[in-house]
Design brief:
- The protein is an alpha/beta fold and about 450 residues long.
- The chain folds into three domains: about 50 residues, Transferase, Pyrimidine Nucleoside Phosphorylase, Chain C (Transferase, Pyrimidine Nucleoside Phosphorylase, Chain A, domain 3, Up-down Bundle); about 260 residues, Nucleoside phosphorylase/phosphoribosyltransferase catalytic domain (Pyrimidine Nucleoside Phosphorylase, Chain A, domain 2, 3-Layer(aba) Sandwich); about 90 residues, Aldehyde Oxidoreductase, domain 3, CATH 3.90.1170.30.
- Helix content is about 45%, strand content about 15%.
- The protein contains 17 helices and 13 strands.
- A four-stranded mixed beta sheet has the order 1-4-5-13, sandwiched between helices.
- β4, α10 and β5 form a beta-alpha-beta unit.
- The longest helix is centred in the middle third of the chain and has 17 residues.
- The structure holds uracil.
- Uracil (URA) binds next to α9.
């Protein structure tokens, strides 16, 4: 195949054929098409866009560049959720075992954090012994035995995406809806789940800054997934403020466990947060309900009731515990580790009023500076590092009311400076702000 002819065609805004796209992706994956031609292709797509058919062809070709999993021998419906990433986004820790507790198998290949966005695998690895690097064979066994597994995507899945994403990252070609859509979907389709639910976030702490961009991506992913024979839906959700209270790793797992354990006698007893009201609990139940409703062909209201019940009676927690054990993890050891804690600094309010905004991006930057995330792939994470908010938007504060606790291990150096930066994330108003909507749209 002559790549230059395809590049001319794309530059002129003409749609490429299915075989042409397949040839380009295959050639690039095998090293027959060089980086300079593939980056020209990515830039042409950024400028000229792609039709829905081209995007589906690109996704399919990328998916077929590696292993594609098949769960038909399980004889149970399968589903997974994908989030475009947020701050304090520990949703998967609740959603995936919750959907599994409702009788849906959840094969979830997940990622590590980079930049401001945390990774589910990093959070799970704070549980002593938890192996988030299963082989595909071991992943398959955990799904068959427990019904849910969360592990890092292996090298066998979508090598074309890995190669192309690294190229896009350094050629200014990440910001393209068809390329983002193909990148996310190829990995999810390769995972083989019959139902895919997307949480597409917008706002200060999200990859997409506006509702319009997030909606465009959500519609593209749902339409392409349906066209490829998957059941699919998406929620477009507000990520201007952190989800829940914790932003970090150990503290996020502890917060998720508090929610999962609310109906059980395990752990530290009843939650100190009003968990039923918590934003991240409501969003978890909503996303899990969509997975269950689509996967089991059940009315959404019935799926919501089932999810509420399985969360409240501890079934979701028991599923999570089984999954952790199957991955070699020890939740009792996690509880001891979380209690031990590290160096802390408490930030207090200096004025009276209502919390009217908490800037997710600023909170994430502070957590990252404390060591909660990676600036570069390969950086080491401090599992204790992070920010735990004491207030949410709408809460009334007075002078000295705790706003947040900052934490890190090693030494207390830097905590006080980070706290003064964190203060800039808070806005206050003299009257209570109008409640905002966390879930802005449902795309079905
Ligand atoms: N996440 C991905 O996996 N791919 C993209 O292109 C953007 C975000």
């Amino acid at each position: 195949m002559i790549a230059k002819i395809l590049l001319d065609k794309k530059r002129e805004g003409r749609a490429l054929g299915s075989a042409e796209i397949r040839g380009l992706v295959d050639g690039y994956t095998k090293g027959e098409i060089p980086d300079y031609q593939m980056s020209a292709f990515a830039m042409a797509v950024c400028c000229r866009g792609m039709t829905a058919r081209e995007t589906a062809d690109l996704t399919d070709a990328m998916m077929r560049s590696g292993a594609c999993l098949d769960w038909s021998d399980l004889h149970v419906p399968t589903a997974d959720k994908h989030s475009t990433g947020g701050v304090g986004d520990k949703l998967s820790l609740v959603i995936q075992p919750l959907a599994a507790a409702c009788g849906v198998a959840v094969p979830s290949l997940t990622g590590r954090g980079l930049g401001l966005t945390g990774g589910t695998a990093d959070k799970l690895e704070t549980i002593p012994g938890y192996n988030a690097g299963l082989s595909l064979a071991a992943f398959r066994k955990v799904i068959a035995d427990v019904g849910v597994s969360m592990t890092v995507q292996t090298q066998e899945i979508c090598p074309a995406d890995k190669k192309l994403y690294a190229l896009r990252d350094v050629t200014g070609t990440v910001a393209s809806i068809p390329l983002i859509c193909a990148s996310i979907l190829s990995k999810k389709w390769a995972e083989g789940a019959g139902t895919l639910v997307f949480d597409v976030k917008f706002g200060k702490g999200a990859f997409m800054k506006t509702v319009e961009e997030a909606t465009e991506l959500a519609v593209a992913m749902v339409d392409a997934s349906k066209a490829a024979g998957r059941k699919s839906a998406a929620l477009v959700t507000d990520m201007n403020a952190p989800l829940g209270y914790a932003v970090g790793n150990i503290n996020e797992v502890a917060e998720a466990l508090e929610v999962l354990r609310a109906g059980t006698s395990d752990g530290n007893g009843p939650s100190s947060v009003s968990w039923l009201e918590a934003d991240f609990v409501r969003l978890s139940v909503e996303l899990a309900s969509l997975m269950v409703s689509l996967a089991k062909d059940m009315p959404l209201d019935d799926a919501r009731r089932l999810c509420d019940e399985k969360l409240a009676d501890g079934s979701a927690y028991r599923k999570f515990r089984e999954m952790v054990q199957a991955h070699g993890g020890d939740l009792d050891a996690f509880d001891r580790r979380a209690k031990k804690g590290a160096f802390r600094f408490r930030l207090q309010a200096m004025r009276t009023g209502y919390v009217s905004a908490i800037d997710a991006e600023k909170v994430a930057r502070v957590a990252l500076s404390l060591g909660a995330g990676r600036m570069e792939a390969g950086d080491r994470i401090d599992p204790y590092a992070g920010v735990t908010l004491s207030v949410k938007i709408g809460d009334r504060v007075g002078s000295r009311t705790p706003l947040a606790t900052l934490e890190k291990s090693g030494s207390p150096d830097g905590l006080e400076k980070a706290a003064s930066e964190l203060l800039a994330a808070f806005e206050f108003s003299p009257t209570a702000p109008a409640p905002g909507n966390l879930i802005v749209k449902r795309i079905a």
